[in-house]
Amino acid sequence: MSNRLDGKRIMITGAAQGIGFAMAEAFAREGAALLLIDRDGDLLAKVAEDLQAQGAKLCHAAADITNAASIEAAIIQARETVGDINALVNNAGVNIFAEPLKLSDEAWERCFDINLKGAWNCTRLVLKGMLAGGKGGVILNIASTHAFTVIPRTFPYPLAKHALLGMTKSLGLEYAAANIRVNALAPGYVATQKVIDYWNSFPNPEAAKAETMKLHPGGRIATPNEIAMAAVFMISDECSFMNATCLTVDGGLSVQQHPL
Question: Which pTM does this prediction carry?
């Protein structure tokens, strides 16, 4: 264990799997105390137990980010274990893709409730504590390359991610004088279970995987830990002058106009 995140008390949403879990592991290795949030209470409890067995200081709460009251209760409870939260990673999200005129109102609302409103619920609550404490803090929104590009047949997900990036920039400027940094991290394809499930939805999963790899100049996609280590940098004091911006970690995917 090193100490790049010593003194950081970090709340992570969507922490039970994928990038969220990888960040929890990486942050704990770097000396942070954690508040882990996820809707899947059973999986979260197992993840928390495993991390604690490795020496991590943390608490966890099964909570829905669209329910501000449940998030507030988790933050209050966390004070007894990890202290006041001084860093937040808004990681929880959901992919919703539909043909625009066939998109139901329910799907539209779910997309924005989780990908945007949920992030704002958590941000608003943590911001209040940061301002009251007077020592600043860090907010990191896990965006996506969908936040500044548009892939056909992915509506309305890019709309929500574009808005999340807009919120990042706006809040970064709004609270810079209070020493609160607000940034975004934009992964491309990452080898999570969700991506594997996507490949497996095709008749030939290996062919689908190969097509994904071909989109990337390096011929591969990111591991969850590679995204997590970028997040370590952005949360750490090594990154103290980065504010109101977005770091893209996609292996060059969004720069390459056409696949090779």
Answer: 0.96
Number of independent structural domains in the chain: 2
Range of the structural domain that residue 209 is part of? 190-221
Length of the chain: 260
- The backbone torsions φ and ψ at residue 124, rounded to the nearest 5 degrees and listed phi first, read -60, -45
Give tens-digit pLDDT for 106-153: 999 999 999 999 999 999 999 999 999 999 999 999 999 999 999 999
How does residue 258 score in pLDDT terms, banded at 50, 70 and 90?
confident
Q: Which of 157, 175, 189, 198 is catalytic?
A: 157
Encode pLDDT of 73-115 as tens digits: 999 999 999 999 999 999 999 999 999 999 999 999 999 999 9
Q: Which two tokens stand for residue 138?
A: 């860090």
Q: Is 189 one of the catalytic residues?
A: no
Domain assignment of residue 252, yes or no? no
Q: C-alpha 61: how far from its chain's center?
A: 17
User: For residue 2, is it within any domain?
Assistant: no
